[in-house]
Amino acid sequence: MKLIFEKSQKGRTGILPGESDIKESFELDSSLMRSEPLDLCELSELDVVRHFTNLSKKNFGVDDNFYSLGSCTMKYNPKVTELIASCGGFANIHPLMPQLRGGGILTQGALGVLYEMDLMLREIAGMDAFTLQPLAGAHGELTGMMIMAAYHKKQGNHKTHVLVPDSAHGTNPASAAIAGYDVKVVPGNEDGVMDLDAFREMVNEETAGVMLTCPNTLGIFNPHIKEICDIIHSVDGLAYYDGANLNAITGRARPGDFGFDIVHFNLHKTFATPHGGGGPGSGPVGVVEKLTKFLPISVVVKRNDGTYAVEYDREDSIGYIAPFYGNFGIILRAYVYILMLGAKGLRRVSENAVVNANYIKSRLEEYYDFPYKGLCKHECVLSASRQAKNGVHAIDIAKALIDRGFHPPTIYFPTTVPEAMMIEPTETESKETIDAFIDAMIDIAKQAETNPESFKAMPKTTPVSRLDETKAAKVLDLACTGCE
Amino acid sequence: MPFIANTKEQVEQMLAQMSMTRDELFSDIPQELCAKSMNLPPARSEMQVRDYLSSLAGKNSTDLTCFLGGGVYDHFIPAAVNAIVSRSEFYTAYTPYQPEVSQGTLQAIYEYQSMMCRLTGMEVANASLYDGGTALYEAMMMALAITRRNKVIIDSSVNPIYRYTLKSYSRNLKIELNETVSTDGLANRSEVYDLLDNDTGAVIVQNPNFFGCIDDLSDLAEAAHEKGALLIVSTYPLSLALLKTPGEIGADIVTGEGQCLGVPLSFGGPYLGFMATKKKYVRKMPGRIVGRTTDSNGKDGFVMTLQAREQHIRRAKATSNICSNEALCALSALVYMSLLGNEGLTQTASMCAQKANYALKRLTAIDGVELHFKQKWFFNEFVLDLPRDASDVVAALVEKGFSAGFPLSRYYDGMENSLLVAVTEKRTKQEIGMLAEALEAVL
To answer: Where in A45-192 does DSSP place strands (E)?
Structure first.
């Protein structure tokens, strides 16, 4: 499909602001102006609408069909939350309003949402306070690690490194490194969880903390979780809970009760806000009592008269990590979602997410290798190594799934499993949909036996076939800046 | 239960298939770690939740006439922007890991990157960062990685909230953050030159700056480059429809808040951090990048590229920890810029400047109200000196239905009487006149 720039017609106009009601003209000094006139595009509104409507048809979303992308919790995004977030009473508030004297009272609805969301997340997490400011999961991780660093500084602790299991998301070590820590990787054991003995051996007086996803990226719940937290606490280290996989336990178990000191949640995963083709997300961070003073600026508080206010003076705070109050529009959607489910609904979420994942695993076990036996939580990881022997790799199976109308699982992650395919069904998919997916996977497994060569031409049903990524990285055509 | 698909019977069928009971599903979580109870409000239906949320929305006043800016602005958003970004094919997809089923998102990001390059006069742009503040932090880290230095100079005419953000992030790292004090509404040249040396990795400035003043930073670019440092410019992208681009100024990395390009105010987010740079620095740029390539039949297509910079490959050694970005806001910006086109964007920017200039005339006609930085050019925002405390005046004007601007005393010492006023294309002659009358009345 042509680029939008190639559709431009000189002299065609789109949406103009109209004539100014102020007649006096105003010119900036020419020395301050751009030397070349702006060169974006010249199109009608219809040209633009058609261009993007046609582009949208080259995409696959949750509304199209089952989006099995593991670790991303691609559940249905309720329409009602979109409607509420776009209503003027929320979408048109300027974020500096509460900083004006007399302005805070005019944003009580929005501040109320933030205040109540904090309270609800505390309940769900078993933590003592939350900041809603982090703008994505990885931003939450960084915020959490900065809180960890602030705590150790205040304690006078000399801490140099953070422990991270080998199956962790890449954001964990990256966040710890940016917060100023060395990262040490703890190996996993044959049960698919972090090796307790190796961990115990690696913990010393210089260990600032441990970052854990639980259940982990293999979908396995670590039975020693409490012991791990106790060990890290024995050296005054902190336990960090990456809530990427909260959907597995939501409503029934809480990281605070496991012994974690800092958690982050991904509202765009667990609490059903749309993924937007890559974002925006939201990554609130919760902490235990002893860490609340380190939370970032600002905090929404409730005054004695029942009104809400924003508090900025916080002596021990790690400071500003983002300009305002977080991705408010996303927080609002997640808030509405939690209100609609309640405590019982959240329990049903995790139950159905776990039933669906185990059902997939159980029905596929005959056809694919599952490196870790037994119960999984909200996602299951298979290895396509059996198929790879015939030359059909995880990526080939992914492309075959595309031709059968499904979004593929996450592939080649976690890296600890060869030919990994990580499938996360979520609770919003029904048995019929999951059965259809399983049938497709079985069909693909059979085809990998009978006709492995056929996979190389897949996918066949998409606007483009397999793309040359090596060429992309070599020629680096990253922008069209004058291609018409 | 809303949004949960399986019937009770289906759950039982699935459990039977697995020879499991419901209780066994969570038998791996030690009993003592299971939550005893969870104190959440009772579930509400869609009808009930809409009712409740509309009562909360009603507690937010949105009928104030907005002259508040300070980095985010009340600009007009055409209906077609929302119509496009509300297409579920865009908003219910995720990061385009599987390019064959993500060409819509991928081509849009490539076009967005191209638009941002054309607007800023730079060679490459990434797929988006969180917001203007965190984008500036990422730019600082990038410049230090490129130059392998650890000294940074930042002028106080840069958005103060961004400066605070940089301070928080630098606290645990070996970064020497020096702040120069803006003089006369512009970046303080003499202080920057005094500090600039062979250890300096980045000079961070803003144009138009936080005071709204237009600062041609070409001389600073030259000075920074002479010492081997990079010039980082934070900008207000809409202004670049008119103003000398950061590319023309000689900037090495450009960042900013893209909210002005079709993204609603939404009480602070989601917004759009953008970043553009020179091609030679692309391998040090954080965030996703989309490139054009061909498929196995030679047909053009798009993929995420240079992923070896990113956390999911490089882990602790990645250029940044960013994973989720603000893709949907980038799409809004792309659609907004496409709809307005060259003429619409230029006219909108001109109208902002024209109306701001008119507002300045009307407001400074009031006794005792003066422009703070005289003889400086501004785009659509300026600093007024009032005869009394600006916070008090703003509070009085809130009563009269205006968010009249941002009192600078919150972030700048000795500016108790100074008010930062922003005027967008949406403000009418009548509204400006009414603000002038109201201001005169409360002084």
So the answer is: 129-131, 161-165, 182-186
Name the residue range of residue A322's domain: 82-339
Identify the CA nearest to B153 among candidates B129, B188, B122.
B188
pLDDT digits (tens), chain A, 484 positions: 999 999 999 999 999 999 999 998 888 999 999 999 999 999 999 999 999 999 999 999 999 999 999 999 999 999 999 999 999 999 999 999 999 988 889 999 999 999 999 999 999 999 999 999 999 999 999 999 999 999 999 999 999 999 999 999 999 999 999 999 999 999 999 999 999 999 999 999 999 999 999 999 999 999 999 999 999 999 999 999 999 999 999 999 999 999 999 999 999 999 999 999 999 999 999 999 999 999 999 999 999 999 999 999 999 999 999 999 999 999 999 999 999 999 999 999 999 999 999 999 999 999 999 999 999 999 999 999 999 999 999 999 999 999 999 999 999 999 999 999 999 999 999 999 999 999 999 999 999 999 999 999 999 999 999 999 999 999 999 999 975 4
Domain boundary assignment for chain B? 65-75+342-442, 79-335
The H or E element containing residue B419 is strand B418-422
CB spacing of B93 vs A275 below 8 angstroms: yes
Q: Is residue A14 in a domain? A: no
Distances (CA, A) of A364 to A394, A438, A445, B120: 15, 7, 10, 52
Q: What is the CATH number of the domain that holds A239?
A: 3.40.640.10
Sole residue written with tokens 């305002």 = A324
Q: Measured between CA atoms, how close is A196 to chain B, in angstroms?
A: 16
Same domain for A387 and A362: yes
Pair (A415, A318) in one structural domain: no
- Minimal CA–CA distance to A280: which of B380, B411, B10, B329? B329
A306 and A425 housed in the same domain: no
- Please indicate, yes or no, whether residues A100 and A211 belong to a single structural domain of this protein: yes
Residue B226 CB contacts under 8 Å (≥ 6 apart), including other chains: none
Residue A283 domain-assigned?
A: yes
B274: nearest Cα among B288, B291, B255, B246: B255
Q: CB distance from B113 to chain A under 8 Å?
A: yes
Type of residue found at A421: M
Do A174 and A241 have their domain in common?
yes
Whether residue A129 is contained in a domain is answered as yes
**Would you call A280 and B99 a contact, using CB atoms and an 8 Å cutoff?**
no
Same domain, A416 and A294: no
Q: Does B15 touch chain A (CB under 8 A)?
A: yes
* Cβ contact, residue pair A100, B407, below 8 Å: yes
Chain A residues with CB-CB distance to B49 below 8 A: 80, 84, 336, 339-340
**Domain endpoint, select from A339, A362, A384:** A339
Same domain, A365 and A434: yes
Query: How many domains is chain A partitioned into structurally?
Result: 2
Is position A327 within any domain?
yes
A298 interfacial to chain B (CB closer than 8 Å) = no
The encoded tokens of residue B435 equal 């603000």
Query: Which tokens is A413 given?
Result: 């992650």
A40/B24 touch (CB, cutoff 8 Å), yes or no: no
Q: Which CATH architecture has domain B79-335?
A: 3-Layer(aba) Sandwich (3.40)
CA angle A299, A305, A310 (to 5 degrees): 15
Q: Is B183 on the interface with A (CB under 8 A)?
A: no
In angstroms, rounded to a whole number, what is the distance separating the alpha carbons of residues A224 and A189?
Answer: 12
Do A367 and A288 share a structural domain?
no
Q: Please check whether the domain covering B65-75+342-442 is classified as CATH 3.90.1560.10.
A: no
**Would you call B309 helix, strand, or coil by DSSP?**
helix
CA A29 to chain centre: 46
What is the spatial distance between Cα B171 and Cα B176, in angstroms, rounded to a whole number?
9
Contacts of B218 in chain A (CB under 8 A): none
Written as one letter, the residue type at A127 is M
